Amino acid sequence: MLEGIVYQNKDRLSAGLIVAGWDPINGGTVYNIPLGGGLFKGPWAIGGSGSTYIYGYCDATFREDWGQEETVEFVKNALALAMSRDGSSGGTIRLAIITEGGVERVFVPGNELPPFGDKL
Where, if anywhere, are coiled coils annotated (predicted)? Predict the structure, then answer.
């Protein structure tokens, strides 16, 4: 449905979408619907102005056999790295951890971000 909406409005809509969820048949699932439409399922998806800086990091670092804690740390590191390079990526992290048990929201303030900016 969202792929169709984005595609039908590609000349008026300037947005890509990341859609994620959990269901008993498929477990956790992530879809990327980029600018202009299309639907791509994968183990992770990134978008936005800072994403161009971290595709290589995500490709080289992500492992599908990680547990929740390792995955959350990967996401925090990827976002902090993007923010250290892209002034439009914001100054805090807001995560939604989606599991069989529901959605857990996590807020990481700017003073608690991983220190990638200091190491570049």
Answer: none
Pairing of strands 17-23, 27-33: antiparallel
Task: Kindly give the pairing relationship between strand 93-99 and strand 40-42.
Answer: unpaired
Could you give the CA distance from residue 119 to residue 72 in angstroms, rounded to a whole number? 21
For the entire predicted model, the pTM comes to 0.83
> Which residues have C-beta within 8 Å of that of residue 50, sequence separation ≥ 6?
79, 82, 83, 85, 86, 88, 89
CA atoms within a 13 Å half-sphere pointing along the CA-CB vector of 115:
2
pLDDT confidence band for 109 (50 / 70 / 90):
very high
At 116, which helix (H) or strand (E)?
A: helix 116-119
User: Using CA of residue 68, residue 92, residue 23, residue 41, what is the dihedral sign?
Assistant: negative
Cα-based torsion angle of the residue sequence 88, 91, 83, 30 in order, rounded to the nearest 10 degrees: -90
